[in-house]
Write a structure and sequence with these properties.
Blueprint (H helix, E strand, L loop, with lengths): L4 E10 L3 E4 H5 L6 H8 L3 E4 L7 H15 L9 E5 L10 H9 L5 E5 L5 H14 L6 E8 L9 H4 L4 E11 L4 E9 L7 E3 L10 H5 L5 E3 L1 H22 L9 E4 L4 H10 L11 H4 L6 H9 L8 E8 L3 E8 L8
Helix pairs in contact: 3-4, 8-9
C-alpha cells in the first residue's frame, strides 16, 4: 500500500496596499535607510490601514484567492488552521472567522500560536491529519498584522515588521511528494528577550499596562539574533543530515524572513548560494507567520514538481524548526 504524504497543492498570498518605506520611517524615528538596509535587508513593508481591520481581513483574502485559484469548493474543506501572533480576538479564534467568511461550512478550525515558527508548526500539524487518512483538504494560513502591536517610536522593532498573509492548500499525495521530514523545537529561555509583556492572564490589560507600553513587542535584538543564527541554522543542518541531503540537492531554502543576516548565516551553514534562497524581506519586512507562505507565493512560478525545499524558522519564546518538503506541482501551471 502506498504511503500517503501531505503535499502543498496551491498557494496564495495577500499584502495590504499601503507601503511603509524606510524614507518614511526616517521621519518617525532616529534611523536611516542605510542603517535599516545594512542591519536587516528591509527596504519597505506593507501596513494594513483602516478601523476594524484585523488579521482576519488579510487571511480571508488569501484564503478566498486560494480557493479560486485551485478551483476548490469551500464546502470540501475539512480543516482551517491559522498561524498567527496577532489574532483578531483571544476568542473566537481567527481561524473560525476565516472559515465562516470563506464558506467552509463543513470544516472545524483553530489558531496555532508559536510566534514566527507558527506557520511551519501548523503545516506539519496539518500533515498529520492528512497522513492519518482522516482528512483530504486542509487550508493552512500564516497571517499577522504586526503593525497592531508595534511602538512606532521604538526603532528597534518598528523598522522590522510588516503585515501580510499567505494560505496553502494541503492534500494527500500518493506519488511520494510533500512533507518528508521535520524537526520542531521550543525553549522558554527566550521569554525575556522577545515578548509581548501584557494582555495575557499573567498581566491583564490595565490603564497602567497601556500607559507603560507593555502591549507592544519587546525585543532584545542582540540576544535574539544570537539564538536565531545558531538554532535556525543548526536545525536546518540536522534535517539535511537525517535525509542525506546536500546543498546541491536543494532547489530552494524557504527561510523565515527575520533578518537578512540570519538568512545568510543559515544558507552559508548548509552550503547554499544566494540564488537558491527565497528572499522577500526587502519588500515585506518580517510578516511573522506570513513570511513562509508569502515566499512560496512570490517564487511559485519558479517551482517545479519534485523540487526539494528546506523550510527553516525561528520565533519568539523561543520556537524554531525545519522541514524537508518535495514540491508537488509545476508552479507555472497553477
Amino acid at each position: 500500500m502506498t504511503k500517503i504524504k501531505a503535499a502543498i497543492t496551491g498557494i496564495q498570498g495577500y499584502v495590504p496596499d499601503y507601503v511603509l518605506t524606510n524614507a518614511e520611517l526616517e521621519k518617525m524615528v532616529d534611523t536611516s535607510d542605510e542603517w535599516i538596509l545594512t542591519r536587516t535587508g528591509i527596504k519597505e513593508r506593507r501596513i494594513l490601514k483602516g478601523d476594524g481591520q484585523g488579521t482576519s481581513v488579510m487571511a480571508i483574502k488569501a484564503a478566498e484567492g486560494l480557493l479560486k485559484k485551485t478551483n476548490t469548493n469551500p464546502a470540501d474543506i475539512d480543516l482551517v488552521i491559522c498561524a498567527t501572533a496577532t489574532p483578531d480576538y483571544i476568542f473566537p479564534s481567527t481561524a473560525n472567522l476565516i472559515a465562516t467568511a470563506i464558506g467552509a461550512v463543513n470544516a472545524f478550525s483553530y489558531d496555532l500560536m508559536a510566534a514566527c515558527s507558527g506557520f511551519l508548526f501548523s503545516l506539519t500539524t496539518a500533515a498529520q491529519y492528512i497522513e492519518s487518512g482522516k482528512y483530504k483538504k486542509i487550508i493552512v494560513i500564516g497571517a499577522d498584522k504586526m503593525s497592531s502591536i508595534l511602538d512606532y517610536s521604538d526603532r528597534a522593532t518598528c523598522i522590522i515588521f510588516g503585515d501580510g498573509a499567505g494560505a496553502v492548500l494541503v492534500e494527500p499525495n500518493e506519488e511520494g511528494f510533500g512533507i518528508q521530514d521535520f524537526i520542531l523545537r521550543s525553549d522558554a529561555v527566550g521569554e525575556k528577550y522577545l515578548i509581548l509583556k501584557a494582555g495575557g492572564s499573567k498581566n491583564p490589560a490595565t490603564h497602567q499596562t497601556v500607559d507603560e507600553g507593555l502591549h507592544y513587542v519587546y525585543q532584545e535584538g542582540s540576544a535574539v539574533f544570537k539564538y536565531a543564527v545558531s538554532n535556525m541554522a543548526e536545525v536546518a543542518e540536522q534535517v539535511m543530515f537525517k535525509n542525506n541531503l546536500t546543498g546541491k540537492d536543494l532547489a530552494f531554502l524557504v527561510p523565515h524572513q527575520a533578518n537578512k543576516r540570519i538568512i545568510n548565516a543559515t544558507a552559508d551553514r548548509i552550503g547554499l548560494p544566494e540564488e537558491k534562497v527565497m528572499i522577500n524581506i526587502d519588500k515585506y519586512g518580517n510578516t511573522t507567520n506570513g513570511c513562509m507562505p508569502l515566499c512560496l507565493w512570490d517564487y511559485e512560478s519558479k517551482l517545479k514538481k519534485g523540487d526539494k525545499l528546506l523550510f527553516s524558522a525561528f520565533g519568539g519564546g523561543f520556537t524554531w524548526g525545519a522541514a524537508y518538503i518535495t514540491w508537488a506541482y509545476d508552479g507555472s501551471k497553477n
